[in-house]
Write a structure and sequence with these properties.
Elements lengths: L7 E3 L4 E6 L2 E6 L1 H7 L2 E5 L6 E2 L4 E7 L3 E5 L4 E6 L1 H5 L2 H5 L8 E4 L3 H5 L2 E2 H10 L3
Antiparallel strand pairs: 1-2, 1-10, 2-3, 3-9, 4-6, 5-8, 6-7, 8-9
Amino acid sequence: MTTDMTKVLCTKSHEYFIKEGKSLKMGVTDFAVEQLGDVVFIELPEVDSSFKKGDIFGTIESVKAASELYIPVGGTVIEINEKVIEKPELINNDCFGEGWLIKVKDFNEAEVEEAMTYDEYKEFIEEEGH
């Protein structure tokens, strides 16, 4: 299934989220994946963990670097993608689809509205000289 990129919202720290009813599906953007290279390990939080916007919610490691993951919108984790823990390469192959990381509920709608659309995010990357 192809992701509708008009529904993808992004942050300057290269995380994304997609609203799915009363929850948000989150992950890292294609640009982040490109910068990281081949992802070899992912650490995600426990279900029912709560975070404020900007909190570190996990770690992603690649052949090039290890990076902390910052939650783009505060909320409570309701699901983690077990598949990416077992097969981190899913993030490289389909970061917006099978390579999603966590789903959260009880999020702040105002924080959702602060994010960039995917097109705005692409412009941000170009302006930053990436």
